[in-house]
Amino acid sequence: MRESVAAVVREAGTTFTVERVRIDDELRPDEVLVRVHAAGICHTDLTTAATAADEQLPSVLGHEGAGVVEAVGADVRRVRVGDRVALSFASCGRCRYCDAGEPSYCVQLAPLNLSGGRPDRSTSVADADGTPVQSFFFGQSSFSEYTVTYERNCVPIGDSVAFATAAAMGCGFQTGAGTVLRALRVRSASTVAVFGVGTVGASALLAARIAQARTIIAIDPLPGRRELALELGATHTLDSGPGVAAAIREIVADGVDYAVDCVGHQAVLTSALESLAVRGACATIGMSQGWGPNPVEIDLTDVLLRGITLQGVLEGDSLPQEFIPELISYVADGRFPVDRLVTEFPINRIGDAVAAMRAGDVIKPVLTFG
């Protein structure tokens, strides 16, 4: 057993409690023990904490970790002790989607990422009294100084990138950038509208620059986010609300080639679809209703007559072992300055980090472990 500081959810809808836990470091063959140096907070963590059922608690969340490998299981080959790694989502590595390089659509995605433990329901975490604490959230539960994860979660990151920057590569940064570069495959000299300039939207905006889009329109209700979007490379910004699609068409008369919906509300999706040019494509990646149903109305006649596409995207359609190193290379050459989105908080200030995130005062809060 190894002692660790962790942020634990004990009751749904309440704040995280920072406490000492014990990590079972007797690793199974495909497992890796990581000392976490940084972990991003994502809206998915907050939604899960707010809506967790009794049988899912207590639990350690966190799915954007980065740190150093401390120990490896007998069958682990991709990483070694001492490697600096980012942690991404879990996948089985055996199904047809994993074989095709599409692990975010793994047939075992839900049990491996959301069940609160290993496939056999065991956990690697216990509290100070010895009570089991659910772990393996997204295969990593990285709101903990030490965590047990799977080899497939680990992506070596080398020495060029700070842990606080690398942390959100595992979800938020790769989701936004992958949506543009991998799912939509935005073309050079094309036009793009990004709805919502949070972590995912800002990453999508930066990726549109990398793809050499001609016009990049960022839509957000917060003036500070719109100012940041311009600094990051947006050519235009707009306030959200009624009339957005018409305002976009004042900038690009025929409509945009691509739209990225980072929100997932009816009004935003409607605006995104209305803003598209003929044969345009919209990717939706917002989960405004958390894990619950999110029914929306779509005018199928409009979809048919204009030949437009609506595509759902998970984790940027990324293969993390390939895409995260690609993103880190863009960080190194200055084209993906996501460090500007990061605000660091020590783990004992997780409450402040969550409050700042909900207030819109920070874009990507990242917890650090001293």
Automatic annotation (TrEMBL):
Its cofactor is Zn(2+). Residues 13-367 form the Enoyl reductase (ER) domain. Gene3D superfamilies: Medium-chain alcohol dehydrogenases, catalytic domain (3.90.180.10), NAD(P)-binding Rossmann-like Domain (3.40.50.720). It comes from the Bacteria. Keywords: Metal-binding, Oxidoreductase, Zinc. InterPro entries: ADH-like_C, ADH-like_N, ADH_Zn_CS, ER, GroES-like_sf, NAD(P)-bd_dom_sf. CDD domains: benzyl_alcohol_DH. GO terms for molecular function: oxidoreductase activity; zinc ion binding. The keyword Flavoprotein does not apply. Belongs to the zinc-containing alcohol dehydrogenase family. This is Enoyl reductase (ER) domain-containing protein.
